[in-house]
Design goal:
This protein has a domain at 21-134: Winged helix-like DNA-binding domain superfamily/Winged helix DNA-binding domain (Arc Repressor Mutant, subunit A). It is 35% helix and 5% strand. The chain has seven helices and two strands; from the N terminus they run H-H-H-H-H-E-E-H-H. It is globular, with a radius of gyration of 21 Å.
Length: 187
């Protein structure tokens, strides 16, 4: 049995999204930039060679309005850039920037987690393979600086207040603090 909830009920129950732009946690800031599922799926498809609005829309089945907003955001954040169509037509292509290509390990990690936890035994799913060998890509691993494979229990997050100072210069109390580097739009 399906129970329909009216739009007014849904709006009343919706939580306003809080910005994580100023968080001191890199995971939180990253989610503020790319934590929306449509955005990650657009990035995934861009890695698969999708470039045109119509191709993203057809492949994802997302509404044109949502897609236009997400593409606009990804361009503003410097994850995608718009370029002339590779075939010389009047269309525009969306292409991953260096910042966007740096999301590849994130997409692979989500893929591998999904393979492990989101499919029934023997349920078919797409696989990521090496272009040259045709063999499946190996598992991502987190390693120490000396190459040792690390588990979560082998690591700890050092909060900002506990980090050693980056500079050995004394802090001038009259000097304005530098603006922190953020995941804001690139110029």
């Amino acid at each position: 049995m399906l129970i329909a909830i009216g739009c007014e009920d849904q709006e009343r129950n919706m939580v306003k999204r809080t910005s994580l732009r100023e968080a001191d946690c890199p995971v939180a800031r990253s989610l503020d930039v790319i934590g929306d599922w449509w955005s990650l799926l657009i990035v995934r498809d861009a890695f698969d060679g999708v470039r045109r609005f119509s191709e993203f829309q057809k492949g994802l089945g997302v509404s044109k309005g949502i897609l236009a907003a997400r593409l606009r955001d990804l361009v503003a954040l410097g994850i995608l850039k718009m370029g002339l169509a590779s075939d010389g037509s009047a269309y525009r292509d969306y292409v991953l920037t260096d910042k966007g290509r740096d999301l590849f390990p994130v997409v692979v990690a989500l893929r591998q987690w999904g393979e492990d936890h989101c499919f029934l035994p023997r349920e078919p799913y797409s696989v990521l393979v090496d272009n040259k060998t045709g063999r499946r890509v190996g598992r991502l691993e987190v390693r120490s600086m000396n190459g040792k494979i690390l588990k979560a229990s082998d690591t700890v997050v050092r909060k900002v207040a506990t980090l050693a100072p980056i500079s050995k210069r004394p802090i001038n109390p009259r000097r304005k603090p530098r603006r922190a580097v953020s995941c804001s739009p690139t110029t």
